[in-house]
Structure formats: structure tokens, C-alpha cells
Amino acid sequence: MGTRYLLVLFLILLVLGFEVQGNHTTQQDEATSPTLLSQMQESLLGYWDTAKAAAENLYKKTYLPSMDEKIRDMYSKSTAAVSTYAGIFTDQVLFLLKGDQ
User: Fold this and answer.
1) CA distances (Å), 57 to each of 40, 47, 60, in order?
2) 33 vs 25, 27, 37, 89, 98, CA distance in Å?
3) What does pTM read for this prediction?
4) How far apart are CA 77 and CA 42, in angstroms?
5) What percent of the chain has pLDDT over 90?
6) I need a labelling partner for 26 at 20 to 30 A (CA). Which of 1, 14, 35, 84 fits?
């Protein structure tokens, strides 16, 4: 799973590198052109908006109320179990640290 994130990061940096590399300007044009940081921000915001819109469309297409209800139920049951076991674990750790006072 870590290599997948590394690959995505590499591809994003590669795309940004090609985009920045394609925008060569002279020294005189640099004063009137936007800075590299603002260009990168605009580019990243554009990519983010595109990805967000695609994710929203995918969610709207695949939304199933019955599945949503099952996921909510599973989440509430799992959080209840985790909180119970976390309480038991905390009690055990405190008992080990304090002892039989």
C-alpha cells in the first residue's frame, strides 16, 4: 500500500514538473507573469476541483440507501466495540502501573 502512495506522489510531481518546465519565460516577462507558486497553486486547485467533481459524480451514481444504512450500522457497532475494548485495555494498563494499592 505504501508503494501505491509513492507512485501517486511521483506521478503528481512528474506532471507538475512537466507543466512548470513547459512555461519558460525570459527575465522581462517574469515581472509581468505570475509567480511559480501561484501557477502551482492554480494548477493544484484545478486538479483538486476535477478530482472532487469526479468523486462526487461517482458517489451520486453508486449511492445505495440500503448500503448506506448497513455501513452506518456497521460503523456504530464497531465504534461501540472499540470503545469497550479501549476501556478494558486502559483499566488493565492502569492496574499494571498502580498495582494493588
Assistant:
1) 26, 15, 5
2) 8, 10, 11, 59, 66
3) 0.35
4) 42
5) 23
6) 14
**Residues constituting the chain:** 101
Helix, strand, or coil here: 22? coil
Residue at grid coordinates 501561484? 38
Burial code of 75-101, b = ≥16 C-beta within 10 A, e = fewer? eeeeeeeeeeeeeeeeeeeeeeeeeee
Given a cut of 70, the residues of the chain with pLDDT beneath it are 1, 19-33, 101
Helix (H, G, I), strand (E, B) or coil at 101: coil
Residue 43 near residue 19 (C-beta atoms within 8 A): yes
Are 25 and 33 a contacting pair, CB within 8 Å?
yes
